Write a sequence for this structure.
């Protein structure tokens, strides 16, 4: 199977000279993501078990806006596309284009958080809190932990975007764009499962 | 110096269109007046397809070393085993 490095620079080529043939940072990110799978599975698994234990779920007080949830899902999927296009531009050594696509990803991530904040505000204004019932406890726990990961991803993306302003830093650390992309796509995948479980089913 | 490419931008855009369409399809199916079991099964299959598309094309598992796929698959095997235990105990109670 062929192995393609995202951004081929002298530094990244040196980094890939490992026993596995995989750059250490990239392998570490995948192992980290594997641990994150276990983390979110614990949350989602608990949600499924609790839901199966309740005949009426989420009940009369458990209304969520499907259109808003759908919009947020589409926003996050768009951000996955923009960050992979950023990586593609970086592979072609088009640094300004990579920066712009990364900026678009950051903006979309912030938009996702803004919409989620709007949803939270609407619930709080109706006196709905995590302590209201078991459904809302699960809802806030899962979506808040996911939102924290989105915030982490945005910070990572901003950090990598700053490298694009310095040719020296970009040459030595630009390969981290691929790591930021992997993390961002994982956050997207988590939402791909959270959205139907919480909003649709 | 040659620059290795993962996929073309056209592929990324096509995958994006599919992802958007699958999301809207899932929302539409969830609104249908059919059995709840069919809706749950269909929507979760659609989610799995979306996650597969993202992992294979956007995370480049399709072209990267197979070892990375094993790193990701390992927790899923553990998760599947854990869920089997949980659901088997639930079925016993029923």
């Amino acid at each position: 199977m062929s192995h393609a490095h995202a951004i081929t620079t002298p530094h990244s080529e040196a980094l890939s000279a490992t026993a596995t043939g995989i750059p250490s940072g990239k392998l570490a990110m995948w192992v980290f993501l594997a641990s994150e799978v276990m983390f979110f599975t614990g949350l989602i698994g608990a949600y499924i078990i609790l839901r199966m234990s309740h005949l009426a779920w989420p009940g009369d007080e458990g209304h969520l806006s499907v259109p808003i949830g759908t919009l947020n899902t589409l926003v996050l999927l768009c951000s996955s596309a923009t960050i992979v296009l950023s990586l593609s531009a970086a592979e072609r050594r088009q640094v300004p284009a990579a920066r712009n696509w990364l900026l678009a990803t950051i903006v979309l991530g912030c938009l996702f958080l803004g919409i989620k904040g709007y949803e939270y505000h609407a619930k709080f204004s109706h006196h709905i809190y995590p302590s209201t019932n078991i459904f809302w406890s699960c809802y806030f726990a899962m979506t808040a932990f996911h939102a924290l990961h989105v915030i982490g991803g945005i910070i990572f993306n901003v950090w990598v975007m700053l490298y694009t302003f310095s040719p020296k830093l970009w040459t030595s650390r630009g390969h981290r764009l691929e790591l930021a992309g992997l993390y961002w796509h994982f956050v997207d995948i988590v939402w791909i499962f959270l959205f139907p479980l919480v909003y649709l089913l | 110096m040659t620059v290795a490419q993962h996929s073309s931008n056209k592929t990324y855009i096509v995958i994006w269109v599919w992802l958007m369409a699958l999301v809207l399809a899932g929302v539409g199916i969830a609104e249908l007046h059919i059995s709840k079991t069919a809706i749950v099964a269909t929507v979760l299959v659609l989610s799995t397809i979306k996650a597969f598309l993202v992992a294979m094309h956007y995370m480049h598992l399709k072209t990267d070393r197979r070892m990375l796929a094993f790193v990701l698959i390992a927790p899923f095997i553990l998760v599947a085993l854990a869920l089997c235990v949980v659901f088997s105990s639930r079925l016993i109670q029923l």
Residues 75 and 83 of chain B are 12 Å apart (CA to CA). The helical segments of chain B are 9-30, 36-58, 66-93. Chain B touches chain A through 51 residues (CB under 8 Å). The first helix of chain B runs from residue 9 to 30.
